[in-house]
Amino acid sequence: MKTISFRSTLVLLVMVLGLSGCASSMMLKADSILSPGPNYAVVNFLRPSALGGAIKFGIWDRDNFIGILTPRNYIQYKASPGEHLFMARAENWAVIKATVAAGKTYYILAAPRMGVWKARVAMEVVKPDDEKLQKWMDSLEPITVDPAQRDAYVSERVADVRTAVDNVESGKADFSVMNPADGK
């Protein structure tokens, strides 16, 4: 009888853990692609990297839950014109204070970073003329929230989200800025 080596077992374990982080039962494949309209903008949250694949990023607009961003996917969000506070949660909170204009499309990259206990998240505004943008959009799958699971997820987390919002508004937390001109 052939025995399985420690190395083979370790490789198998890493593969299983990596694959288990690639999807979230909370999210479904999106049926359609959003286009901006006269009364709203579309904000795309992109995660092209598979690094930190087991860690999912909760994406919020203040205390409005947008979705869970997983590797090699993107989430689209209809945003009313005006000010927004886009936030991503991992080991930390990453925040973008945004002002969006109706009829425009915006892009935000959510990228994993090394953390102490799990991956951290960083968010940055992607300009529409960034040469990597089209490559990312061609390779990513659009996902959306499963409405049947939304309320339970939100109710467990909304207190933490509101604390994060308060920290930003009181100047205790850093943030980046997205302006209306950052869209196309």
What does this structure look like?
The chain has 184 residues and is α/β, with parallel strands linked by helices. It has one domain. It is built from three helices and eleven strands; from the N terminus they run H-E-E-E-E-E-E-E-E-E-H-E-H-E. It has helices spanning 6-20, 133-139, 147-169, and strands spanning 27-29, 41-47, 57-61, 64-69, 73-79, 82-89, 93-100, 105-113, 120-126, 141-145, 176-178. The strands form two sheets. It has a six-stranded mixed β-sheet. A five-stranded mixed β-sheet has the order 4-3-6-7-11, covered by helices on one side. It is globular and about 35 Å long. Mean pLDDT is 86; it is low at 8-23.
In short:
This protein is of the alpha/beta class and 184 residues long. The protein has helices at residues 6-20, 133-139, 147-169; strands at residues 27-29, 41-47, 57-61, 64-69, 73-79, 82-89, 93-100, 105-113, 120-126, 141-145, 176-178. The chain has a 6-stranded mixed sheet.
What characteristic shape results from the CA principal axes?
Answer: globular
- The count of helical stretches stands at 3
The average pLDDT value, as a whole number, equals 86
Physical arrangement of strands within the biggest beta sheet: 1-10-5-2-8-9
Task: Kindly state the percentage of residues in helix.
Answer: 10-25%
Instruction: Give the beta-strand count.
Output: 11
Rg, nearest Å = 18 Å
The termini sit apart by: 63 Å
What is the beta-strand fraction? 35-45%
User: Helix- and strand-based class?
Assistant: alpha/beta
Number of domains: 1
- The sequence of SSEs as H and E is HEEEEEEEEEHEHE
Low-confidence stretches: 8-23
Q: Biggest β-sheet, characterized?
A: 6 strands, mixed
